[in-house]
């Protein structure tokens, strides 16, 4: 049993090791990473090929070859990678990119060699992938599809090899319009603001058999402006491309390769010894040239790892498929998306820091200041020189949406605050309506306090509507208070006069208090009988004098008798009780005022 158990464990480890080795070997071939859709107009991701890239953790560089179909792009990549394109291989030779010899195109979409070439550039380990692209101008495809292939290769690559057979034609220069547009939009920036560094453009002339000028001289001559005395728009457009390519002169170079062999359909079956020695020499020089200009792919100021490269590919492909025609503007929007979100967040944070509610003028002023600050940040960081207008418009639309939300929030907070103040004042007015001791002075003080607090604290767009409601409520409360004030005061004075009669006769026994109380009582009762109603009394000057005295007694800034009536009454009662029970017994009657004389205790005369 022990032997069989050990055997099983051994075979298990062996299988795991074999599967691991197989998974590594599986990447030593070409994979499609982008393929055409069924309509052959747009591109879509192929997950199989991306696995080879995603596993890379070091910075990535990509060498892409573009050019017309049947121009030898796949064969060139196999030569650069020292791979074979033959279907019959020896045991130590790897099959590279597929090479066709038929009239239709062999490569569909974009393919990648699954095993990167490891290099050390400036002391950093770099993984270099080689990309093969579908050729231009093949039968059965739209020019829009070619544009998407070219645009994607231009953006993804660190080195872009423009593979051309024999000569540079006017159409070949026109094809670079997208690369030029990208250069004008992105490549003029420096430092951390770089969206992605431009690919090194390598003009490669295949099957170069012409004598005379060097390839570099031929490229320079092809990029010179063409006289356009007749004002042909097409010539003007190509001349603009020439001017832009001339500006990119430091970022491009030219190279030529002679024909490797006359029997071109047999090239895949030939070894280096059978090829033209001049071709072998130039091929090795080309390898050295490509190696010397390779740099890691830089996006947003940092090199991309495998997963980041795949994410970048998906992002760019989505932008290129967005419209019917791929445009630099769509790429600009992609690169500005993150900046736009950061600017929108900055504006939202600034607005959220405001202490709502605010007046409409104050909110608008803050909005203008924060919007100006946000647009300034966007202007400093955004990508694109000519096609950033759409991003600016989108940012402006988003800022307007956020501002409208804050306007609604300000209206809600203003309404909430003003409603709270209105309710508070309404409750205050209701309390003043039921004062135990009616006082016009106290009502007016509360009325003024409510008005001032509302005017000071109620802010925002709801203030005007609540001011109208407030004025209406206050006027109604004041009218009601005035209407009941005289009537309640009349009743209080009648009761007060009767109480003072009792106090003057039986408690204090001060005849002047009793007389004054009787006069007040008689005046109140007889006047209303003589003039039919109490309302007529309220216009009498004597009544005004009585009211002024009452107001002085009941309410003042020092003493609010409505609040302190009970404590004051208790204190006075205790003082009177003290005087009656203790003060007179101890000190005798020393009053100088006319008091009632008591006959109790006098000796009777016979």
From TrEMBL:
Under CDD domains, the record lists: GBP
Q: A Pfam family in this protein? A: GBP
**Database matches in SUPFAM superfamilies:** Interferon-induced guanylate-binding protein 1 (GBP1), C-terminal domain, P-loop containing nucleoside triphosphate hydrolases
A molecular-function term among this protein's GO annotations: GTP binding
Q: Which domain of life is it from?
A: Eukaryota
- Residues annotated as transmembrane: 564-582
Q: What span is annotated as the signal peptide, if there is one?
A: 1-23
UniProt keyword list: GTP-binding, Hydrolase, Membrane, Nucleotide-binding, Signal, Transmembrane, Transmembrane helix
Record-annotated GB1/RHD3-type G domain positions: 57-167
Family assignment from sequence similarity: Belongs to the TRAFAC class dynamin-like GTPase superfamily. GB1/RHD3 GTPase family.
The molecule here is called GB1/RHD3-type G domain-containing protein
């Amino acid at each position: 049993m022990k032997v069989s158990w050990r055997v099983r464990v051994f075979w298990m480890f062996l299988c795991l090791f074999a599967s691991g080795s197989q998974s590594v070997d599986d990447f030593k071939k070409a994979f499609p990473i982008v393929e055409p859709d069924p309509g052959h107009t747009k591109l879509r991701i192929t997950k199989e090929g991306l696995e080879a890239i995603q596993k890379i953790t070091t910075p990535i560089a990509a060498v892409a070859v573009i050019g017309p179909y049947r121009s030898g792009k796949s064969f060139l990549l196999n030569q650069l990678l020292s791979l074979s394109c033959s279907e019959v291989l020896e045991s130590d030779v790897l099959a590279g990119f597929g090479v066709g010899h038929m009239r239709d195109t062999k490569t569909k979409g974009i393919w990648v060699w699954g095993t990167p070439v490891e290099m050390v550039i400036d002391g950093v380990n770099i993984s270099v992938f080689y990309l093969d692209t579908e050729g231009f101008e093949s039968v059965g495809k739209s020019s829009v599809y070619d544009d998407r292939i070219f645009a994607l290769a231009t953006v993804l690559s660190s080195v872009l090899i423009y593979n051309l057979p024999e000569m540079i034609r006017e159409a070949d220069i026109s094809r670079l319009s997208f690369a030029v547009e990208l250069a004008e939009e992105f490549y003029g920036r420096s430092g951390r603001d770089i969206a992605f560094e431009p690919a090194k453009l390598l003009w490669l002339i295949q099957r170069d058999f012409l004598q005379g000028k060097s390839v570099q001289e031929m490229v320079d001559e092809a990029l010179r402006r063409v006289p356009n005395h007749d004002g042909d728009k097409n010539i003007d457009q190509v001349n603009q491309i020439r001017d832009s390519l001339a500006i990119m002169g430091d970022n491009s170079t030219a190279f030529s390769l002679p024909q490797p062999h006359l029997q071109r359909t047999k090239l895949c079956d030939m070894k280096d010894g059978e090829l033209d020695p001049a071709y072998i020499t130039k091929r090795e020089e080309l390898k050295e040239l490509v190696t010397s200009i390779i740099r890691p792919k830089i996006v947003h100021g940092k090199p991309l790892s495998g997963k980041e490269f795949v994410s970048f590919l998906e992002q760019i492909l989505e932008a290129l498929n967005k419209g019917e025609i791929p445009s630099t503007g769509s790429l600009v929007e992609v690169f500005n998306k993150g900046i736009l979100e950061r600017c929108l967040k900055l504006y939202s944070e600034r607005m959220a820091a405001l202490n709502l509610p605010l007046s409409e003028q104050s909110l608008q002023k803050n909005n203008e200041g924060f919007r100006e600050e946000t647009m300034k940040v966007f202007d400093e960081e955004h990508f694109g020189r000519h096609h950033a207008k759409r991003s600016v418009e989108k940012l402006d639309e988003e800022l307007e949406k956020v501002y409208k939300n804050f306007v609604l929030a300000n209206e809600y907070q203003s309404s909430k605050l003003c409603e709270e103040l209105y309710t508070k004042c309404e409750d205050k007015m209701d309390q003043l309506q039921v004062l135990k001791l009616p006082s016009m002075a106290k009502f007016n003080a509360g009325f003024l306090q409510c008005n001032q607090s509302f005017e000071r604290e109620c802010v925002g767009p709801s203030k005007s509507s609540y001011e109208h409601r407030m004025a209406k409520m206050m006027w109604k409360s004041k009218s009601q208070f005035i209407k009941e004030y005289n009537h309640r005061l009349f009743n209080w004075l009648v009761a007060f006069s009767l109480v003072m009669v009792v106090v003057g006769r039986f408690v204090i026994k001060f005849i002047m208090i009793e007389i004054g109380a009787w006069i007040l009582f008689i005046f109140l009762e007889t006047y209303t009988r003589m003039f039919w109603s109490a309302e007529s009394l309220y216009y009498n000057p004597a009544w005004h004098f009585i009211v002024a005295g009452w107001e002085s007694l009941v309410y003042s800034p020092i003493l609010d008798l409505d609040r302190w009536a009970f404590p004051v009454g208790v204190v006075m009662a205790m003082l009177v009780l003290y005087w009656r029970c203790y003060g007179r017994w101890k000190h005798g009657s020393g009053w100088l005022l006319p008091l009632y004389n008591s006959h109790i205790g006098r000796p009777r005369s016979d």
